[in-house]
Amino acid sequence: MKYSADDLLQKKSKEKIAVLTAYTTPIARCLEQAGVAAILVGDTVGMVEMGFSSTRDVTMAHMIYHIGAVRRGAPETHIIGDMPYNSDEIPEEALRNAQQLIEAGADSVKLEGPKFDVIRHLVAHGIPVVGHTGLTPQTAANFKQVGKDEDDAQRLLDDAQGIAEAGAFMVVLEHIPDGLAQRITASISIPTIGIGAGTACDGQVLVINDAIGMGDKWPPFSRQYAYVGQTIRDAAKEYVEQVVSGTFK
Ligand code: KIV
Description:
By secondary structure, this protein is α/β, with parallel strands linked by helices. It has helices at 5-10, 25-34, 45-48, 60-73, 91-104, 116-124, 150-166, 178-187, 208-211, 228-245; strands spanning 17-21, 38-41, 78-82, 108-110, 129-134, 170-174, 192-195, 203-206. Helix 2 (25-34) packs across helix 4 (60-73). It starts with a helix and ends with a helix. 3-methyl-2-oxobutanoic acid (KIV) binds next to strand 6.
């Protein structure tokens, strides 16, 4: 069953929300079969699939391509399309770009930071929005945890409240202390989706490549449920040995 933005919003305090990222058709198909509530086509695609060192290299064209691929693999799952760096600064421009992500197959869009005017503008034009606060990789200087001192924690609490008041239906909390995620979750009316933010959030999101062990470096907070990279290396090694030794049939 494909959840609408409102279905996801209604899960707050009732049912935990499991979100994973996906970037390709076969992975999206697996995630739909596994029953995730939503798939995030994140701009992490740039780092985990495209070899860039930052999400800032990801463009609208990349996102449109990957959202289309994920939609073809998961026709019955809510898809959140990430707004790439610099695509969502000005409300009118953000709306044009968000509409393109929706046309490509997304049901909602996610954008980083306290861009309250942009969120209000998108929502007013019928685009469901997921906010993102805490560590916001498009603008962060590094990937260290944020919100550790009281001033920073208060800033993030204000941002999350502003994002909810602007009309977002969910908000991602990335790499903040567990206690702060708990405070934010208790103080806003929309579901919080944590990544590196403890277990008190209304849901969790993981980058699929981290979760299945398909990468070469992992953030400190990632969880691994499989070691697919090792499986691929073993399979390729066996194939190479068979071809080279003449035992390949
Ligand atoms: O781009 C992404 O995959 C994300 C997650 C890390 C939440 O924003």
